[in-house]
Amino acid sequence: MSGISQALTRIAPSATSAMTDRAAALRAEGRDIISLSVGEPDFATPPHVIAAAKAALDGGQTRYTAVGGTAAMKAAAALHFARDLGIAVPLAQVTVSAGGKQAIFHALMATLNPGDEVLIPAPWWVSYPEIVRFAGGTVVPLATGAAGGFRITTEQLAAAITPRTRWLLLNSPGNPTGATYSAQDLRALDDVLRAHPEILVMSDDIYAPLRYGGAEHATLAVECPDLAERVLTISGVSKSHAMTGFRIGVAAGPEWLIRAMEKLQSHSSGNPCSISQAAAVAAFTGPQDFLDGWRERFRARRDFVVGAINAIPGLSTPVPDGAFYCMVDAAPLMARLGTDEELVLHILEHGVAVVPASAFGGADGFRISFAADDAQLAEALRRIAAAVAA
Ligand code: GLU
Predict the structure, then answer these.
(1) Is there a single domain that holds both residue 82 and residue 216?
(2) I want to staple 204 with a disulfide (CB 3.0 to 4.6 A). Which of 102, 234, 271, 341 is the partner?
(3) pTM over 0.90
(4) Is the C-alpha dihedral spanning 332, 362, 299, 376 positive or negative?
(5) What is the pLDDT of residue 337?
(6) Is residue 55 part of a domain?
(7) Structural domain range at position 196
(8) Does ligand 1 have an atom closer than 6 angstroms to the CB of 101?
(9) Residue 322 and residue 175: Cα distance in Å, rounded?
(10) Is the beta carbon of 41 within 6 A of some atom in ligand 1?
(11) Centre of ligand 1 from the C-alpha of residue 110, in Å
């Protein structure tokens, strides 16, 4: 007998989490596996953040908080939105969840009806389409390619919109391609969106601090103020402050949507972890200067990985402008190595865990996270070269 709901049968498990678990299981068996599958910085969480978490524990901050976060947490999130993204919001338009993933989950669950269409630029982050399907929505992929910087065009957006379109999900800098939209790109998209006031737009800015091109970060809520009543901006501390395990994501948007997300959260997790909130307050309000050093190290790793991949016959990757992933094209090898899932298993046999492009709505390749230490990256790239040559 299977007691599985129809909603759950519509979705697949998270491919990034599955590959990371698989790598951990192989390691537990004694295999030497380098995991470049999950996107999480290898840097230690900053000491002032750890100290704040310990102080919260010692100070007895171990009870329920307000569902959408403590007053201090909301104030810290609002500070982050204003200082780092240029989005000035009152506290009533900010909420805090157990990771950006939960904020996205609640936003989509709270707004989608069966058959509503959600436009998602592909390649996409693995969880976007699965959450949409779970919520009863229909995924409408907007295919992008390396030649166009993995960005959608205004013509493509206009052509994809139907009376059922409910959301456009944008992620800049993007996972898994590093796709980055300029202020001009966003305003051009707004020229299309303006005529469709029923469409909500998600701007997932979780990778905003990790940009390498030198250009200012551009975000819809700032560039397109006419969209203010329908833009939800997602951010957090996981990637910028190496706090993936703390599970703190923040969202800013119109009050009606923030209240809807908190209503749902009041029945799912309730408040995000009280200790993690105290740590995230320290992350947002404390020193930010360490980020310059981290960004520089990520940039150096990116350059190394891009150079090494492009030196392997049959593999190629463009230079991502942000985030910490490379989308590797392996199309010339597919006839010999099978599907991208088979290719990834073959690379795993050679001791490196990566995620197949198909998990991101792409094809014929795989994603590498370069948020790993330099020696591991060098060894992983040596193994990938050996796997491809074998
Ligand atoms: N966002 C990261 C990734 O794509 C973390 C894992 C996940 O939640 O998918 O690897």
Answers:
(1) yes
(2) 234
(3) yes
(4) negative
(5) 84
(6) no
(7) 63-285
(8) yes
(9) 9
(10) no
(11) 22
